[in-house]
Amino acid sequence: MTHSQSDISEPTPPAPSPRAFCHATGFVYQGAGMLLALGACCWWSFSGRIHDEVAIEAAAAPAWRSPAHWAMGGVTLTFLGGLAIAALGIGMQNDRPPSAVWARRVTLALAVFFWAYLVAALLLLPGSLGRIVTPGMMAILWTVLHLLAGVSHEEMKRNPPDPKSLQSTWTARDEDELRKRLSPRSRDKTTP
After folding, report:
1. Helix, strand, coil percent values for the chain (each to nearest 5)
2. Rg over CA atoms, the chain
């Protein structure tokens, strides 16, 4: 018995995810977030080499005109923002809609800070080229990350994940097993 070409059905490849861009953005966020968080430590120690020393008059200036305050804010926010987008990237890869919303908020806040830092570096802060280039690069980076988050958020709104896929796979048996393991005494065999 021979089979004809029409009798054999070829398996169809699975359809691409309607949230593929959101998943890819989550992957980018994880990598960029960890690089930013780890790089913030190096940036702080290296910033003294690329920035010239602050004059005593500039050190006595108000906080918004102090290069040290701006630099410290930049390092701290880069570290915290890096950790935040790494965590949000995991949520975006796992189709968690709040992750895309929070990614937009976090990246917008950091983009605004670094654009303000760049303007302050250009107009108010005395210093070198390094003091201008660093916030400029960070402002562009956070703006690009914000745009990615915006597109991912819109994609998540257009193609929301199935609510059943967001439910936990935790069962009553798993809960009982956890209670048994955490209980300091052995269970009574006569009562369930």
Report:
1. 70, 0, 30
2. 26
User: Crossing angle of helices 20-50/67-93, nearest 10°?
Assistant: 160
> ∠ CA(143), CA(54), CA(122), 5° rounding?
35
- Are 102 and 113 within 8 A, CB to CB? no
- Indicate the DSSP class of residue 64: G
Residue 103 CA to chain centroid, in angstroms?
6
Is residue 71 within 8 Å of residue 47, measured between CB atoms?
A: yes
Q: Is residue 158 over pLDDT 60?
A: yes
Among the residue ranges 38-42, 65-69, 118-122, 186-190, the one predicted with the least confidence is 186-190
Q: Give phi and psi for 9, each to the nearest 5.
A: -100, 130
